[in-house]
Amino acid sequence: MKKRVAFCVVFPAVWGLLLSFADTAQALDTVYNHTDERGLKQGYWQKRYPNGRIAYRTFFVDDKPQGLLVRYHENGKTMALIDYFDDGITSSAQFFSSNGELVGEGRYLNERKKHGLWKYYRNGKLAMDERYDNGLLEGTSSWYYPSGQVFEQKQFKKGQQEGIHMQQDEQGHLVFEQMFAGGLRNGLVRYYYPTNRIRIEGRYTDNVRTGEWTFYSSGGAVERKTTYVQGVPADKDSIDKINSDLLKSMEANKGLFVEPAEMLEE
Questions:
Q1: Beta partners for 227?
Q2: How far is residue 252's CA from residue 244's CA, in Å, rounded to a whole number?
Q3: Does pLDDT of 178 surpass 90?
Q4: Mean pLDDT of the 142-152 span
Q5: Taking CA atoms, which of 25, 51, 158, 187 is between 20 and 30 Å from 176?
């Protein structure tokens, strides 16, 4: 006779209810924070905040977490749900703000190394996604405007920035594009007007401006050229003024996005 296996899907709306039942049941007859004669964590472990609220609760077997780890903010709301499997080697995680909004989700391998696709949210919308290979950034990392339009993209290879790096405005017009190699700016860089005409064009070698740089008017005419030697331009004063204005315009985008480390206040 074939055995039937029943699968149960737990919806987010009932997570709090289930966790509440689990808390009550465990509190009745559970020994917490136990280590065996080898000094290895075994069974349920929990930690409390100074106000008495639970900070986290999980289950260990031979010092390795198993099943669901729940971390809480001091206000009692869930901070993180981390589900361990493969003998505690792999886990899937979701992180929440203190008001209950999802701010990040992804997967860990081998001692909490990020792996695969990670997504980060702000105000309920996707703000960033990035890809990892066993803890190292790999492939395309993207930042988004609240509208969903791509704001910035970077390319990575084995944790180092490699390939094209670009930013664009919310209408999809390029702001700048530059090339990276070995984690440093190497190769062509271009800044653009909102009309998609090139504003500045030049090259970097190991993060240092080099060779001839060309500056264009908004109509496309060449306004001036200068040559950089070890990062220093021939007409330093006028070039510094132009670069200062450009950087100020780009600073207007600063603060639109929260870095992952700030989102995941673990």
A1: 212
A2: 13
A3: yes
A4: 93
A5: 158
